[in-house]
Amino acid sequence: MGQAALITGSGALPAAVARAMDAPPLVCSLSGHTPEGIKPDLTFRLEHLGSLIETLKSRDVTEVCFCGAVTRPEIDPAAIDAATKPLIPALQRALQPGDDGALRAIISVFEEAGFAVKGAHEIAPALLPPLGDLTRKTADEGVRVESVTARAVLQEMARIDEGQACVLRGETVLAREDTRGTDAMLADLAAPRAKPLPSAADPFNWVMDSVAEALDDTADWLAGAGGEKAACKGAGGVLFKAPKPGQDRRADLPTIGPETVRGAARAGLRGIVIEAGGVIVLDRDTVIRLCDEAGLFLSVRAVL
Q: Which of the four, 47, 201, 234, 290, has the lowest number of CB atoms within 10 Å?
């Protein structure tokens, strides 16, 4: 039986997948994307992808798994080696806008080279949490309405092949994930709300805007997002995360972890909703503990 290899980006997912494997995998890290908690056996550049494939074959690798976060790298045409030149059309497809299309292009390169491509959740199924509310606090009634809107928003995002998460408060979309990722979106929502400036031309409207802002903060407080949280852009919102409809789940399956919870708490959110079977939870015990400490719910739903 051949060896398995992890083709890794950054973050904690590669180490979690490696721990679930029967035998230590060959860890191949994309340059500039060192994973946490695991030492790469080798580091490669996309310009040397063909050479990486030759190395894997020489080491009797038959199965690969893509795991970890990757930002789209710049390709230096002058650095492309001889073994990679035949793959230039595939690399060009991989560098087109859209995350899912890029991953499909890279997966196809490995499949055409004869490797079996497995998803992280197939190797480590325990990373997928069970259905239901996993925290002491349970999802409130507002989540049902918010889920309908979130589903439509995520489907719209999928059409442009970007992002797997959004934050809603009621039917208002507070944020959509972009190429920077979920943590960056939550950091934006943790920023204070902009207060209206007084207008010499229309002092009455400025007073009314200020009253409206105060009423918004009061509503957030009543919803359980009091104190400093009430001043955040994300106060009272809910994070929704799910895979894109029709995406290849062997790579880039959405992931949350302790830092996601910390970001949600800093943004003043009420909770987190993820799709069952489609979102990996890293360090689940810590995630649940942090949610409980912050008064957040974590709800796993069959369909958003």
A: 201
pLDDT, tens digit, for every residue of 143-193?
999 999 999 999 999 888 778 999 999 999 999 999 889 999 999 999 987
Cα–Cα dist 8/194, whole Å: 40
Q: How far is CA 9 from CA 14, 22, 39, 117, in A?
A: 8, 21, 12, 16
Total Cβ atoms within 10 A of residue 40? 18
Q: Which residues contact 283 (CB under 8 A, 6 or more apart)?
A: 12, 16, 257, 258
Q: For 205, phi and psi rounded to 5 degrees? A: -65, -35
What SS3 class is residue 59? coil
Classify 3-125 by CATH class: alpha beta
CATH, domain range 128-191+232-301: 3.40.140.80
Say what the pTM is.
Answer: 0.83
Residues 6+ apart with CB under 8 A from 276: 128, 129, 130, 131, 300, 301, 302
Contact of 290 with 265, CB cutoff 8 Å: yes
Q: Determine the 3-state secondary structure of 13 from DSSP.
A: helix
